[in-house]
Amino acid sequence: MVIEASNSVADPRLDTGVDAITNAELLERRERAVPRGVGTAFPVFAARAQNAEIWDVEGRRYIDFAAGIAVLAVGHRHPAVIAAVEGQMARFTHTAFQVTAYEPYIELAERLNAIAPFSGEAKTIFFTTGAEAVENAIKVARYATGRQAIISFTGSFHGRTILASALTGKVTPYKRGMGSVPSVYHVPFPNPIAGTTVEASLKALDYLFSADIAPEDVAAIILEPVQGEGGFHVAPPEFLRSLRELCDRFGILLVADEVQTAFGRTGRMFAIEHSGVEPDLVTIAKAVGGGFPLSGLIGRSELLDTVPPGGLGGTYAGSPIACAAGLAVLDVIAAEGLVDRARRIGERITTRVEAMQRRNDLLPIGHIRGQGAMIAFDLLAGKGTDQTDPDAAKRVSARALDEGLIVLNCGSTGEAIRFLPPLTISDAHLDEGLACLEAALVNEAAV
Ligand code: PMP
Fold first, then answer.
1. pLDDT value for 1
2. What is the mean pLDDT of the chain?
3. Per DSSP, what are the bridge partners of residue 186?
4. Which residue of 95, 105, 151, 447 has the fewest CB atoms within a 10 Å radius of its CB?
């Protein structure tokens, strides 16, 4: 497949003018037609997009630092992804893999098995959403170990189905009033900013094992190598190594939830590779589909093969269109060197944010952290304090929109600004987005 070197040139078909509808009209219709339970970060509506740019229905252009929540690692409408999808659509769009299987699914599994972040034989099964991948990781872990209990971490996010939100380490808004599931336990995620050391987290596991559940009854420990929604906190390598040892000692499976981190985002194909720790099961979604709904579970063959036929799957799981897109995504990541590019993007962002942090005419910036192109920083209540200011963070992302930038918050109280630009973004667009953010920080400080 021939891949065009860059997709930063707007498709001429995009310059067709402005839709005859306003953001305000759509907002009103949205509020009447769609429940408020599905929040929307910004009151603007997408009309079209190309690589790292989005135009709203009124023709206003934005630099996109959200990339559809870490989905568009290869940018909006990468030509290779569009060509692969159009090629697949011309052949067939759906058969259900469980009825009539197809090559794109198998080929994508083969290619992911070859890069699985663990030694030994791997297999991959596909689903549609990140939460579904997480659900299936737990199903496999329970089946393979014959155990029920799952350990997860505070501040984690694993999705919005009942099990995935039960695993999620944040009550409001994800689980309050919606109940939970039994046999799920949480321990503190090590977070130096919150004062939680690796030792404290490991001690909490000891307490759990003495007070609530024997380690021999635990099926899996699930964690994000870099917490995404929770604030871009990186799991310390020594913590991951301790978890691996613990899992080996008690026959517990280690599940890396790489839904937000995988496919180059952190400067490695999988974030867990930074630590050298090998997980047993890896959940993937977001970037792999290049904008088409696709998720998967990569795991040790001997674990995935325990479940008998029929125990796993789904009508739309591993859609041929999404698998075709996934193959193109892997091609683009390799051809355009996006794993290295993620590191350079991260460095460029960090240098610029550090410079902003030193200035006195901006809202005060706290801890800058992350891995590769997955960087976040806190907004502080004042210079010299550690107290975060979630309201300021929300005002900054709202103000950034006025400046022409789409950028998201994250963190347990929404106290952080997070960068998730497409890895295909040009330096010019990256700098333009950073300038918009800087203007937002200056203008909010002046209010
Ligand atoms: N796990 C992680 C680490 C995530 O970041 C997310 C989504 N933000 C999910 C799971 C759930 O994915 P989805 O929304 O596709 O169900």
1. 35
2. 95
3. 152
4. 447
Query: Hey, what are 10's tokens?
Result: 């707007």
The whole-angstrom separation of Cα 346 and Cα 271 is 14
Q: Find the residues whose C-beta lies inside 6 A of ligand 1.
A: 69, 129-131, 134, 157-159, 224, 228-229, 257, 259-260, 285
**Residue found under tokens 């009309």:** 47
Residue 179 is predicted with a pLDDT of 81
Answer yes or no: are the C-beta atoms of 152 and 180 closer than 8 Å: no
Adjacent-strand bridge partners of 257: 283
Cα 260 to ligand 1 centre (Å): 7
- Ligand 1 binding pocket mutation candidate from 135, 158, 167, 227 (most atoms within 8 A of CB): 158
Which atom in ligand 1 lies closest to the alpha carbon of residue 159?
Answer: 11
What is the sign, positive or negative, of the torsion defined by CA atoms of 323, 48, 229, 74? positive
pLDDT tens-digit readout, 298-344? 999 999 999 999 999 999 999 999 999 999 999 999 999 999 999 99
Nearest alpha-carbon partner for 237 in 270, 203, 273, 262: 273
CB-CB contact of 388 with 411 (8 Å): yes
Length of the chain: 447
Render pLDDT for 41-92 as a digit per residue (tens, 0 to 9): 999 999 999 999 999 999 999 999 999 999 999 999 999 999 999 999 999 9
> Ligand 1 centre from 131 Cα, in Å?
6
Calpha distance 33→289 (Å, rounded)? 28
pLDDT of residue 9: 44
Cα torsion at 66, 72, 77, 80 (round to 10°)? 160
